[in-house]
Amino acid sequence: MDASKSGNGGAGWDARMIDEIVAGLAHMPGALMPVLQAVIERVGFIPPDAVPAIARALNLSRAEVHGVISFYRDFCTGRPGRKIIRVCRAESCQAMGAVALAGHIQSRLGVGFGQTSADGDFTLEPVYCLGNCACSPAIVVGDDLYGRVTPKRFDEIFFSVTSSRSSR
Amino acid sequence: MTAVVYVPRDSSAVSLGADAVTEAIRTETASRKLDVTIVRNGSRGMFSHEPMVEVAAAAGRIAYGPVAPADVASLFDSNFLDGREHRLRLGVAGEIPWLKSQNRLTFARAGVTDPVSLDDFIAHGGYRGLRRAIELSADAVIAEVTKSGLRGRGGAGFPTGVKWKIALDAPAAPKYVVCNADEGDSGAFSDRMIMEGDPFVLIEGMTIAALAVGATQGYIYLRSEYPHARRALSETIATACSNGYLGANILGSGKSFELEIRLGAGAYVCGEETAMLESIEGRRGMVRFKPPFPALEGLFGKPTVINNVVSFATVPIIIERGAEVFRSWGVGNSRGTMPFQLSGNAKRPGLIEAPMGVRLREIVHDYGGGTASGSPVRAVQVGGPLGAFFSESMMDVELDFESVAARGGVLGHGGIVVFDETVDMARMARYAMEFCAIESCGKCTPCRIGSIRGAEVIDDIINRRRPRENLEVLRDLCDTMKFGSLCALGGLAPLPVLSALKYFPGDFGLAPRDVDFIGADLTISTSGAASTHAIAGR
Q1: A68 and B300 in contact by Cβ < 8 A?
Q2: Model pTM?
Q3: Regarding the domain delimited by B330-420, which CATH topology (the fold level of the hierarchy) does it fall under?
Q4: Per the CB < 8 Å rule, is B351 touching A90?
Q5: What is the ipTM for the molecules in this complex?
Q6: Which residue of chain A comes nearest to B430, CA vs CA?
Q7: Fold of A83-166
């Protein structure tokens, strides 16, 4: 999935894609979660306009589908930045300076938690434990997990991510 | 002769650069034209030395760590492939005192084997438990688990064998086996380490459970924050299927068991077993009323055995070696070993499998070496975000279900988070309420409203707004949440708050006598007047 292809707020999905996803998974008992996860995997977010089709195909009400989408943190309904940065805010990471690190990252990106940078490159999200507690504080950038992250190490990671993008 | 080098694929090791180290080793072997096989093993859990590279040498598995990509050339220069001296050399891995002194039963293979190799698993004793289980009757398998004294390692501590017996005796069909791999408690990573470091043992344990209770379908409900575990499990489930360890007619037993991974979506409350079932069924992760208990009416309304990863992963060795071997460890009604997970501001954090009843001091100071920052330990949180904080003066507490409960805490999943002098315990108490508010499923009022009000009231106390009156409100709120909540999220969230108040009143601007209403076991003596304050708000 490369969200950048369709740009921010662009199409990037159509009804047929959603139908295809649902058709492939509808046979599963309790198919809604796998369907929503597959939509995220393909589209990058869950387009609100796709909800009626999902509901119809799974014989659910739109309210039921909306209820599930709104319950889970992973199911975002707007297109996120090209890379999502998740910063652990849980106790073990707090004990190793996660609060200061989160502040540093927010000022580096110029956004708060739950926001996307103006250039659409990064979305900053809180996370409550990545299971990397023995190497606190932990963050995830895109698909990559990092441990023992100091503000300085974050800047190095951030620099390598941004420079690899601009050289592409 | 091909040299074998081990570099962990464990996500924590990767988060410290294990993939880059692997790349550097590949580059170096190519340029030196050496014949080297790289095995991506699990982690042994000694994270102060990760990425820890091992070499199969004549003297045994020689460990080097922590290795950075820049160290790799010098390791080759020093002939580390023969186990030679280097400034990063730690000696024979299994002989390192931090590891050797542990009692590894559940984690015997973690860090030793190639996690996705069935051959390696079997060569190290894997699937012996399942083979024995197939020879025994269902009742005999369950009796063995019951006799071992194994209690749920996910937090609740319910006797595993008893749960299985209820599901076995339930007449309805089909039956399910569900593994709770939604390891959401901060400070917990033992489930992750099993799934990444020895996933076959989880599959083996679930298969034994399925055969014992007569279940034909299994699910692993895995949190989405664990993509490395997902990859390792997917690969090993496919391998187990194609080799007759899963699917139809398992090892010629005539019995079938299918296993599927279902992913969570970032909701902590789905670690509560009934919320997890709701989620698998495709709904909001809202907690169910109990009874009916899942063993009788669980997934899709059918009898369901639910255990956490470490519980299932401990079953094979119990069946293989017999209940007595497991029972011989531990104290009182807490039998066997427990994989404690030390994290936070610890000098030597990691996975420490030790007998139940080990003292907190041994984990925090002997294994952990005190704080990473070098300043004194001020507080330790035991059992996850809903566990109690202990002070440095309580290091003699024994870590087993009963002893921790006697101090008002919970052993939980065995996670232990260390804080140094810089911690503000009032902030930590506030965070506990805030976390509960964020993660509450919203079904019951004490948790949904109580946690938000709790955070507000702690803010008021911290900011000296009528602190005495607001302490009364907090006292009443904690009491209501503890006894009125539907599940452990709201029910235990008061524990970190009450323990922080009890042992660190100064951080709240309070005097010790202000918190006299909190007992040594964190029970609250309530005052009738308090409830009116809670209703009246500020």
Answers
A1: no
A2: 0.95
A3: Ubiquitin-like (UB roll) (3.10.20)
A4: no
A5: 0.94
A6: A91
A7: Glutaredoxin (3.40.30)
